[in-house]
Amino acid sequence: MYHEDVPLSRPDITDADIDAVVSVLRTDRLSIGPRIEAFEAAVARRANRKYGVGVNSGTSGLHLCVRALGIGEGDEVITTPFSFIATTNAILFEGATPVFVDIDPESYNMDPAAIESAITPRTKAILPVEVFGNTAHFDEYERIATKHDLLLIEDCCEALGGCLGDRPAGSFGDCGVFGFYPNKQITTGEGGMIVTDSERIWELCRAMRNQGRRDQSQVGHPILGYNYRMGEMTAALGQAQMVRLAEILEKRRHAARVYDEQLGDIEGIHLPTMADPDKAAWFVYVIRLADSYSRQQRDDIIESLNAEGIGCRAYFTPIHLQPYIRRQFGTKERDFPNTEAVASRTIAVPFYTNVSMEGVSLVKEALERNLANTRGRAATVEPPPSSARKRSLELLEGMHATMLRIRLFEERVSDMLEADQIQCPCHLYIGQEAIAAGVCAALGPDDLIWGTHRSHGHYLARGADMPAMMAEILGKKAGCAEGRGGSMHVFSKEAGILGTVPIVAATIPIAVGAGLASKIRKDGRVSVSFFGDGATEEGHFHESMNLAALYKLPVLFVCENNLYSSHMHIHERRPKDNLYEVGHLYDIPGIRVDGNNALEVYDFAVNAVRRGRNGEGPSLLECRTYRWRGHVGPSWDMDVGVKRRDELKQWLPRCPIARLRRLLVQRGVSEEKLDEVERAIRREVDEAVEFANRAAFPDESELLDHLHSSSEATS
């Protein structure tokens, strides 16, 4: 039996709100009176707009906006498949055609690049949604609309009070619409509000909400209209709640921060992000299970949580998979993989203005318990059983130290690049440390790895000599490749690092060749190939996957998907963001994991290594991550227009090092001990720099050494 001990949502109604509604009942004006005008003015001011039009729902508001802008039959409106159905219905009401584009899997808002690709001569408008209150990308949507002379309707029904920088929700495009359902930031029971700077839109919407009457004093109906009016009692409640909006928003931000802290170290979930957390207007708090969980497993968890009295539900069902949309437009599964992947794994947990800390604790306990009882892993790539996953403190501390070594080394390299102390190009690994640390922690001492131009992290994660790599970067004889390779060609036979190469996908077939040799020799070694998402577009990659699968070679393919191939985002290069599924073409188990969670990476790497050693063949591990710095050098790439500042802002809080540090503290490791570890690594980095600076450059007489093999070398 379901007992909603911690409800999914709960409206925040005070005595002052009740008094405001009752005061209207004591007047003669229950509709179209001073209360709605005051409420309209308050919401318009908050959105930095000239006009507001109160209506009976957000859906009605969207419909009136579509109609007021002259959108109709033959027109296309680009919108999202990940929203409440009203977004699409408002387009269909006027006979226009919704054109769906996939979402950005981090913000859940429409991918701007996908919008650009969907524009046709029939496109008349863009209708984006601030999903769950997230304002990410709305400045870009506005820029795209202006560039292509398109209308822009902002569905801000979930974002009242939020901002993107200095721009409040509701201020983008031609008009916006807020909603006031009971689970929203403020509520009027039912209700919505159109905001705009256009006097024409304002006048049209005011008339259409009232059966087409332009003037309340007249009985005529010069245009087609609807009964979309908001009553005075509804408006009075809204006006009273607007007085408390700042307080409400701060309480909801605090609740979101508490959830972040409580749930941040639970394995197998992704926490929601906001483009501008300090100015966010949280509508709901929606976690997402890792991609290794199936939709059915998600549904089972929701059912169990509800049975325990923890109110939760899935958010949202993809619009393009709704039966009537399928029938009308022929949409189908796999049309929008990001949307479907997100929608099949979301869980909205209890969230409202006055949610208690005790309630959040109950949610955490129930969620952890149900996750532990669910086999949330892909059938083809399973981690060790839960009993084996009680990892030792030594392992956790080791991975934390490894990531710190990588981060502090790379930050020093960045400083030296900016000071012009390093002459060769360097591709920094900052932000991706969890992948190298997690994978290499799963390897044995005799296993082999190959890397890319961005392999400082792989080198250090294998425990290779830091001073030797710093000397190599400076081109010194004492370098790990005797000063011949520089940053992109690091090598350590002792640590099993047999090559890193900047040519895209170049080391993948070499790793497969080593895997073939290991199988022939029966030496038990596993070969690991690290590569970026761009490598999956090369023929070498597919040929290597095929050969490794055909002969069941002990190879682990690790795709470090940091979303960018050089300066091009993955959505500009691939119609579907589904790299891990490529393995299925070759009967290779593929899985996508959180590349910023060293423990999740480690779990799957352990099992993949075991499969390889047992003769079960190769595995593909796609680690979703983000490189904080530019493609090459110390810059952040924002200055050249490559990466988006709001995108980086979403990833910075997911720092893999900070996440593991929090877990260590929870496991009883003192902050003082962790600080001392960091100080020791800083000293190690200092010593590596001093060693490299003291080392000599190679003599020019050695220039041709090792260019050709010798008889001694081959005998």
Summary, kept brief:
With 715 residues, the protein is an alpha/beta fold. It folds into three domains: 15-244, Aspartate Aminotransferase, domain 2; 247-372, Alpha-Beta Complex (Aspartate Aminotransferase, domain 1); 393-676, Thiamin diphosphate (ThDP)-binding fold, Pyr/PP domains (Rossmann fold, 3-Layer(aba) Sandwich), CATH 3.40.50.
Give a description of the structure:
- The structure is a single chain.
- The chain folds into three domains: 15-244, 3-Layer(aba) Sandwich (Aspartate Aminotransferase, domain 2), CATH 3.40.640; 247-372, Aspartate Aminotransferase, domain 1; 393-676, Thiamin diphosphate (ThDP)-binding fold, Pyr/PP domains (Rossmann fold, 3-Layer(aba) Sandwich), CATH 3.40.50.970.
- The protein has 24 helices and 20 strands.
- Helix 20 links the parallel strand 19 (590-594) and strand 20 (619-624).
- Residues 375-390 have low confidence and may be disordered.
- Helix 3 (58-68) crosses helix 7 (199-208) and helix 14 (393-418) packs across helix 23.
- The longest helix is centred in the middle third of the chain and has 26 residues, at 393-418.
- The strands form five sheets. It has a seven-stranded mixed beta sheet, with helices on both faces. Strands 14-13-15-16-20-19 form a six-stranded parallel beta sheet, with helices on both faces. Strands 10-11-12 form a three-stranded antiparallel beta sheet, covered by helices on one side.
- By secondary structure, it is α/β, with parallel strands linked by helices.
